[in-house]
């Protein structure tokens, strides 16, 4: 096991009817900017619960943060923060709203030339404007980590950011919100969380027994509850396990002391930037090809994954590894998620070359846990995913 340090300061408030508790988490003298997305929270009752909890706190609203948090939209929110002298941010939404809020947390205190530098130059935020979250869509784990991904439509870029100053101070997780989530988004959430675990788990053995079993238990739980959640989002027992699995998948715990991959995410972000494909679905497109391309270096962990998670008992290591990839693809298909790029766009030809060139232009010469995947390798992986 590798050396590591672990600190996660986010307070989790989990369970039924917990949204009201935000009133005890935000300083009474704060001036709050309430951030949300397309307005679904006004239809499902979450907005009313939040406003009731904020009734004694000065609050201004900013809605309309899109599914892939858009830089230009966030700049408008940043103007509100500065003009209104906002001191606290509250994100009410899924990963996109929370990621957008993290960007605003960093940008509000950034004194450089342009906030885009935070993303393009990879500036780590040591201190941001304080913020909390009310999670409305389990998926990304952004409610309990310090990372974010922001899209810039005009340049077709999707870049990551983060830093120790971008952990939420608190996050409210009420599984009852799952009741109103459309099936497509539920499938995306399950896929997103599943892939978060695989990115931290499907590398190579390092003797981190507990981390492996933590990861496997999250995968097993998602597999077990996925059909229940999709069939009946009012199944509270299933939704509690779904929501907590999504949070645990990316709160930093299972990646400590182990190598991690993240190449699937790096490539997937490009597909979203180019075509607007849902983030989770880009991961499902790239993952099978990525694992097939890297079978030689990943087969030991793939076989372990196949044995422990999918109960694959027949064959040698390579055969089990291949069967595990097939099981993963079938799992995504069973959620209603296609795993080929050509199912999402007729303009897929040339995509592999475009993405490889983007990586070359940025100076990304090595992706994956070994930092050995070149832009040419990425091109091959994307072509395999057509």
Write the layout of secondary structure elements.
Elements: E1 11-14, E2 31-35, H1 46-53, E3 58-62, H2 71-83, E4 88-93, H3 95-108, H4 116-120, E5 131-135, E6 147-152, E7 157-162, E8 170-173, H5 183-201, H6 209-231, H7 236-249, H8 263-275, H9 279-293, H10 295-310, H11 317-334, H12 351-362, H13 375-384
Parallel strand pairs: 1-8, 2-3, 2-4, 4-5, 5-8
Antiparallel strand pairs: 6-7
Helix pairs in contact: 2-3, 5-6, 5-7, 5-9, 6-7, 6-10, 8-9, 9-10, 9-11, 9-13, 10-11, 12-13
CATH class of the largest domain: Mainly Alpha
The helix tally amounts to: 13
Helix content: 40-55%
Label the overall shape.
Answer: globular
DSSP E strands, number: 8
Explained architecture:
It contains 13 helices and eight strands. The chain folds into two domains: 11-176, Rossmann fold (3-Layer(aba) Sandwich); 182-384, Dehydroquinate synthase-like, alpha domain (Up-down Bundle), CATH 1.20.1090. It has helices spanning 46-53, 71-83, 95-108, 116-120, 183-201, 209-231, 236-249, 263-275, 279-293, 295-310, 317-334, 351-362, 375-384, and strands spanning 11-14, 31-35, 58-62, 88-93, 131-135, 147-152, 157-162, 170-173. The radius of gyration is 20 Å and the shape is globular. The protein is α/β, with parallel strands linked by helices and 386 residues long. The chain has a six-stranded parallel beta sheet with strand order 1-8-5-4-2-3, covered by helices on one side. The chain has a two-stranded antiparallel ribbon with strand order 6-7. Strand 6 (147-152) and strand 7 form a beta hairpin. The protein starts with 10 loop residues before the first strand and ends with a helix. The model has no long low-confidence stretch (mean pLDDT 96).
